[in-house]
Amino acid sequence: MLSANQLTCIRNQRILFDELSFELESGQLLYLTGPNGAGKTTLLRSLVGLQQLQQGEVSLNGQPISDCGEQILYIGHKPAVNEWLSARQNLAHWFELTQQQADCELLLQKVGLGGLMDIPVKFLSAGQKRRVALVRMWQSDAKLWVLDEPFTSIDIKGVEVLTSLFEKHKKNGGYIVVTSHQTLPDELVDKNLHLTYRF
Amino acid sequence: MSYSNFFYQMLKRDLQLAKTQKHELGLPVLFFILVLILFPIAIGPEGGLLARLAPSVGWIAVILAILIALPRMFAEDYENGWLEQLFLSGYPGSLIVTARLVSFWLLYCLPLILSSFLLVPFFSFDLGLWWILLQTLICGSILMTCLGSLASALLVSSRKGSGVMALLIVPLLIPAVIFASAAQEAASQALPYTSPMLILFALAVFALTVAPIATAQALRLNLG
Amino acid sequence: MFKWLHPYAKPEKAYLLSLSIFKYLMPVAIIGLFVGSLWGLMFAPADYQQGDSFRIMYIHVPAAIWSMGVYMSMGIAGFCALVWQIRLMELSVIAMAPIGAVFTSIALFTGALWGKPMWGAWWVWDARLTSELILLFLYLGVFALFHSFDDKRYGAKAACILSVIGMINVPIIHYSVEWWNTLHQGASITKFDKPSIAGEMLWPLLINIFACMLFFMALTAYRFATEVLRSESHRKWVLQINK
After folding, report:
1. Which residue from A16, A163, C130, C170 could staple onto A39, CB 3.0 to 4.6 Å apart?
2. In this complex, which of C144, C161, C177 lies closest to B178 when CB atoms are compared?
């Protein structure tokens, strides 16, 4: 169970969220909505332990989130892809970091980067760069997925593939927390959380 | 993955990245050589004076050149988000920083230290004294890398240039400069120079133990 | 003791406490500075070697002592802020930095004025002058670091880290600079030796040193209160005060 308890965050002297609590059962997806600047990204970052909070804690199956590094897959605005390295090199470093065995070539072919594996990522288009980051979801041992706008610059077919991945992860008993400005299909969403912009 | 394995992977990635941006590596060395050339031109080509100034000029030029390279230490990985993934991976932050310290020293400081050999022909500097300068520069560059890692970690999200960086680093570097020049002075008069050299070495070791912890703290702070 | 201190970790209590500290200490400090300076500058006997020019000591020495004292307290406050994660402590670091910088500048400036008649030069590269100058840059570094962030909270934390690192370095800098040949006069007051300075000269100096400390504390309390207000500007109690 993923539980967030009394989260409070103040940034630039503005309260983003105040004593926010929620729980997420295994196999559920939390869909986070709200206008720009409402603190969606900050909430996601505090869920994985990157954001320091004024108050509150997050735990995964009773363990504090800071001890669950290898159980988290966080894909944020920043893709964690180095522009100068090729897609293959980037992915290889990722799997070394997360200690997973994977066939990078096969995975990259699956997301349609078959012929572009060995050129530096900076020569790829925005959508293709995004794919290099999202490949991580195909082969992930992580229980908790925290995804910040995963659909940005992804085409319609790509969105379908991603939603099918979400379903698979839910069936395997994973947790997903996702923000998106595109609406997700209703059958996918188990919980909704709306943040409002506060002054 | 064991810590040593992780450390090795981090180094491998840094070296791989350096290979794709070779021109970036050359810039500090070029800057160093330019500073060296400016001194004889500004002072005049008198051999004896230049030889006396050579070690100090070498030190100043190395400090300036490292200051140029420093902002790049964590900037790229911070911008593209790799740094937050590293901190999420659960490995100790000080290990991440130490790996970066080592790669930075190898890629930027070592070439600078070696190119200080140019002082020998340009400043008619004694070869035996250069050998001592080399030792002081090795200790000094380790110290600079450590202090610099802290400064560049503190400033990584603020997008301020090397002006603030210099203000943070240079005052803290002054002891090293003093001991290095003391060692050089003693050596040039054929006196024993072990004690300032040892103090310099101690400073470097001390910095190397404290800097990774403080830098990791600073990076975490900048992440959120 | 912690039970007694704990309520003051609340910003509102801390704000009220620091304001009352300011209210009580500031008059005492000003009276002390007035008495000490007047006594020192007008009534204390002239030095048999230095004549009247020694009188600048009554400003120079307190400023120099507290330029280091402020750095020490800033470093300790920064250390506490980082170790125990006390947010108000971070603000106190920021409150102290400019005050310390001003003390350091006063010490340097009056030192230069004193140096001209005594040594015949405005500036000599002597150990104490040099470490004082470096100290000024340490202060400026803390302050510049604080202001290079848009989010003041990050800036305050970063400044804390730097002040702690600086505190570790201050003794190293001090002793390394001592390595040089010292031109400066030896210290005249120490804890253990009998002071080599006459009583009538010493008293105003001690008064001024003490008053300077109170002055520093009062100013810090005031700046701290301001910083607390700024960082809590969205809270109800601040809005009520503004009304």
Report:
1. A16
2. C177
Domain that holds residue B75: 3-223
pLDDT of C86 reads 80
Q: Where are the alpha helices (DSSP H) in chain A?
A: 40-48, 87-97, 104-110, 126-134, 156-171
Token pair in block for residue A27: 């196999």
Sole residue written with tokens 């110290």: B143
Compute the distance between CA of residue C58 and CA of residue C63 in angstroms, rounded to an integer: 9
CATH code, domain carrying A64: 3.40.50.300
Does an H or E element contain A189, and which?
none
CA separation for the pair A129, A116 (Å, rounded): 11
Question: What is this structure's pTM?
Answer: 0.85
- A12 neighbourhood in chain C, CB within 8 Å: 150-151
pLDDT of residue C194: 47
Per-residue pLDDT tens digits for A33-92:
888 888 888 899 988 888 878 788 888 888 888 888 788 899 988 888 888 888 888 988
User: How close is the nearest chain C Cα to the Cα of B200, in Å?
Assistant: 11
Q: Is B181 on the interface with C (CB under 8 A)?
A: no
In this structure, how many other beta carbons lie within 10 angstroms of the beta carbon of residue C18?
A: 26
For residue B160, the one-letter residue type is K
The residue of chain C with its CA nearest to that of B167 is C141
The nearest CA of chain B is from the CA of C94 a distance in Å of 16
* Three-class secondary structure of residue A38 per DSSP: coil
**Alpha-carbon distance values, A186 to A30, A120, A163, C14 (Å):** 12, 38, 11, 50
Closest-CA residue to B126 (of B188, B35, B179):
B188
The residue segments making up the domain with residue A110 are 2-194
CB–CB of B212/B148 below 8 Å? Answer: no
Measured between alpha carbons, how far is A67 from A23 in angstroms, rounded to an integer?
Answer: 18
Domain membership of residue A199 (yes or no) is no
Dist. CA B15–CA B96, nearest whole Å: 15
Could you report the per-residue pLDDT of C157-169, keeping only the tens digit for each? 889 988 998 888 8
- In this prediction, residue C4 carries a pLDDT of 62
> What are C103-156's pLDDT values in tens digits?
999 999 998 888 888 777 788 777 778 888 989 999 999 988 888 887 777 888
What is the H or E stretch that residue A194 is in?
Answer: strand A191-194
Residue of A10, A13, A15, A53 best to disrupt the C interface, most CBs of C under 10 A: A13
- CA–CA distance, B82 with C212 (Å, rounded to integer): 50
The dihedral over CA atoms of C176, C182, C188, C190, expressed in degrees to the nearest 10, equals 20
Residue C193, pLDDT score: 43
C contact test, residue of B97, B147, B149, B154 with most C CBs within 10 A: B154
The ipTM is 0.88
* pLDDT value of position A109: 85
Tally the domains of chain B. 1
* CB-count exposure of residue A191 (10 Å: 0-12, 13-18, 19+): middle
Whether residue B174 and residue C176 make contact (CB cut-off 8 A), yes or no, is yes
Domain count across chain A: 1
- List CB contacts (< 8 A) between B80 and chain A: 78-83
